[in-house]
């Protein structure tokens, strides 16, 4: 018996979400720089985040200041969110990504997180005290 097209579509959708945990690892865990200098934060994923259909890397960078919610800086690995200064830039593809902050300013002091959006369900932000994290968030880099 030949499967109906609807059945095939259902199977493809179910299979697309089947994968092991994606582990996000960030380095370094803390950075000290002077105003006006640059800093690079690295993020490595245990699986490729390059989406085969849309040809985009499903990787975002967030900035979190004490007592505040995380703020989206970069999505699709290199696209700045609205209103984010061009001092912030993202690069990388597949499993290796970087966030670069040029011409550091006092207001840049924060914790920076990478986050993958390639698997579900989404999970809450985990404490940054551990060095690697199952789930979509890296542990954070303190600047």
From TrEMBL:
Cite the SMART domains for this sequence: IG, IGv
Using the record's annotation, list all stretches that form the Ig-like domain.
5-131
Compositional bias per record (Polar residues), positions renumbered to this chain: 117-134
Please tell me one Gene Ontology term that the record gives under cellular component. immunoglobulin complex
UniProt xrefs under InterPro entries? Ig-like_dom, Ig-like_dom_sf, Ig-like_fold, Ig_sub, Ig_V-set, IgV_Light_Chain
Q: Which SUPFAM superfamilies match?
A: Immunoglobulin (SSF48726)
Question: Can you supply a Gene Ontology BP term from the record?
Answer: adaptive immune response
Q: Where is this region: Disordered?
A: 117-143
Question: Signal sequence: where?
Answer: 1-20
Q: What is this protein called?
A: Ig-like domain-containing protein
Species of provenance? Suricata suricatta
